[in-house]
UniProtKB/TrEMBL annotation:
It comes from Fictibacillus phosphorivorans. GO terms for biological process: carbohydrate metabolic process; glucosamine catabolic process; N-acetylglucosamine catabolic process; N-acetylneuraminate catabolic process. One of its GO terms (cellular component) is cytoplasm. Pathway: Amino-sugar metabolism; N-acetylneuraminate degradation; D-fructose 6-phosphate from N-acetylneuraminate: step 5/5. This is Glucosamine-6-phosphate deaminase. Catalyzes the reversible isomerization-deamination of glucosamine 6-phosphate (GlcN6P) to form fructose 6-phosphate (Fru6P) and ammonium ion. The keyword Hydrolase applies. The active site is at residues 67, 136, 138, 143. The gene is nagB.
Length: 243
């Protein structure tokens, strides 16, 4: 894992955007693994800005999102599908047919996980996976204790995760209790991984992640230590307990 310390959220977002834009420009059929949450919003804004001013094309790009809440319709403003439309897809020229997000309203959720794994394996690993990290160390919605051999699966969300994500909902009770997520093994199939971390709320988990070489299922992000090409872009606040 390489760590690049940046000043703040803005710098983290611009550097991440530069990496993605250069990738898409040099490989127009790039497969992008995408995340939701607060962390990548600045990155997505920069991609939109670049699309408008420089015309970087996403016509041949395929996208795969990490996760989706169970029981929330794609056109509900709380779904991750909606989040991605609002924050990225509606503003660039990626074709809808090349966007992949698990369907949290599928009648048979297990079959939906299997279907998503087939799509992922047909893609033979995304070129770059964007990740955020939960303050409990989750990546995707792989909560502590998740097997590092896991593929796409249904998860029970931790109370800490539901509370952290309640800011996007009207009430805590509205935050779903389950989600579909790419598993740790699915995430590790990415050729390159970019973990974005910003803010003081992530300082403790970054300290845990960086102060030992240990790989431990209780800290899902520690699985990244076995991947050959991980770059962590973390800002000063996120690294403030580590130093
Ligand atoms: C989102 C995801 C999560 C978030 C993590 C951090 O698709 O898979 O792992 O990256 O919960 O969320 P934020 O960025 O809101 O702090």
């Amino acid at each position: 894992m390489r760590i690049l310390e940046v000043k703040d959220y803005h710098e983290m977002s611009s550097i991440a955007a530069r990496i993605i834009i250069e990738k898409v420009q040099s490989k127009p059929d790039t497969k992008l693994g995408l995340a939701t949450g607060g962390t990548p919003i600045g990155l997505y804004k920069e991609l939109i800005q670049d699309y408008r001013s420089n015309g970087t094309s996403y016509e041949r790009v395929c996208t795969f999102n990490l996760d989706e809440y169970v029981g929330i319709d794609a056109d509900d403003s709380n779904s991750y599908r909606y989040f991605m439309e609002e924050n990225l897809f509606a503003h660039i020229n990626v074709p809808q047919s090349q966007i992949h997000i698990p369907d949290g309203t599928a009648e048979d959720l297990k079959a939906e996980c299997e279907r998503y794994d087939v799509e992922l394996s047909q893609a033979e690993g995304v070129d770059i996976q964007i990740l955020g990290i939960g303050s409990n160390g989750h990546i995707g919605f792989n909560e502590p204790g998740t097997s590092f051999y896991s593929n796409t699966h249904i998860v029970e969300l931790d109370e800490t995760t539901r509370k952290a994500n309640a800011r996007f909902f009207e009430r805590l009770e509205d935050v779903p209790k389950q989600a579909i997520t790419m598993g740790i093994a699915s995430i590790l199939k990415a050729k390159q991984i970019l973990l974005l971390v910003s803010g003081i709320n992530k300082a403790e988990v970054m300290k845990q992640l960086l102060t030992t070489d240990e790989v431990d299922e209780q800290l899902p992000a520690s699985a990244l230590k076995v991947h050959p090409d991980v770059m962590i872009l973390a800002d000063e606040e996120a690294l403030s307990s580590y130093k």
